[in-house]
Design a protein that fits this description.
8-stranded mixed β-sheet, Rossmann fold, alpha/beta
Length: 279
């Protein structure tokens, strides 16, 4: 399975399109450290009735990122241009984790493009936690290139299983997850650098947008689990659901951060409900 590339402003964005062309269109945004193949692994069958755009977020997976300072606002702008270039007038956006933060930005900034949202284990408010030191140091002179070109490719794969287990806890990791989701792509230097750039500034980015969620008038369904050890549901999903004028919270007591794998049918139901409310 391979996707396609589209060039916008000198950078190439990698994406995959599936499903009937005449069906409602969904845009799926993966979280930090991953690529489009992560949500595709979990949701491709569940969303087969829809026209789905699976996007490698700029800088991650096989997509490139423009130079200069980066933020959710710039990312949402580029994704809106991407949708225009594809000739897609309106979408419902699905975002997981950090992808949900970008989805919120699209809902706020581009209501002309986004008619509703499904947020899965969203990172939505400041104080997610302090960024890991290696994320901050990746942007430093001298030591930064050493981390992205030598240390991360050498040590990162050894630590991958631990991080994956945390993302799925308390549920088991699906067989072949690391290989099928192509998590090895994170250790390409340019991808590592882009992901570190996002995570080093995560709290500042969220502080800049969390006061605006009340502006979102589109229907939004949030799916989360109280056992999430990556992004605390009580800090993020629950208060944001109360802030959204047309937001709804759906909790799954046994679910962890990557709940879209075990609860794919609930994601499908959320999409159908958002589409119905949008109309």
């Amino acid at each position: 399975m391979t996707g396609e590339f589209i060039e916008l402003g000198g950078v190439r964005l990698h994406h995959l399109m599936t499903g009937p062309e005449a069906a409602p269109t969904l845009l799926v945004l993966h979280g930090a450290s991953t690529s489009l193949y992560e949500p595709y692994m979990a949701l491709s069958n569940a969303l087969e009735a829809y026209r789905v755009i699976w996007l490698d977020r700029p800088g991650l997976g096989w997509s490139e990122r423009p130079s200069g300072p980066w933020s959710p606002q710039r990312e949402a702008e580029l994704i809106a241009h991407f949708l225009t270039a594809l000739g897609v007038p309106r979408v419902v956006v699905l975002g997981h984790s950090w992808g949900a933060a970008i989805a919120l930005r699209l809902l706020m900034d581009r209501p002309d493009h986004v008619s509703g949202g499904v947020l899965i284990s969203p990172a939505a408010r400041a104080w997610v936690g302090e960024a890991a030191s290696y994320n901050k140091m990746t942007g430093w002179p001298v030591i930064g290139p050493l981390i992205s070109h030598v240390i991360a490719p050498l040590i990162g794969p050894r630590e991958l299983h631990k991080g994956v287990a945390s993302a799925f806890h308390p549920e088991p990791v699906p067989t072949g997850y690391i290989e099928t989701a192509r998590l090895d792509r994170l250790f390409k230097p340019s991808v590592w650098k882009a992901n570190a750039q996002d995570m080093a500034q995560v709290n500042a980015h969220l502080a800049n947008q969390e006061t605006r969620y009340g502006e979102i008038t589109q229907p939004v369904v949030i799916l989360a689990g109280p056992k999430d050890t990556v992004v605390r549901t009580s800090r993020h999903a629950e208060p944001v659901a109360k802030t959204l004028p047309h937001g709804e919270m759906r909790l799954f007591p046994k679910a962890g951060h990557n709940l879209h794998h075990a609860y794919s049918h609930e994601v499908t139901k959320a999409v159908a409900d958002v589409l119905a409310r949008r109309r």
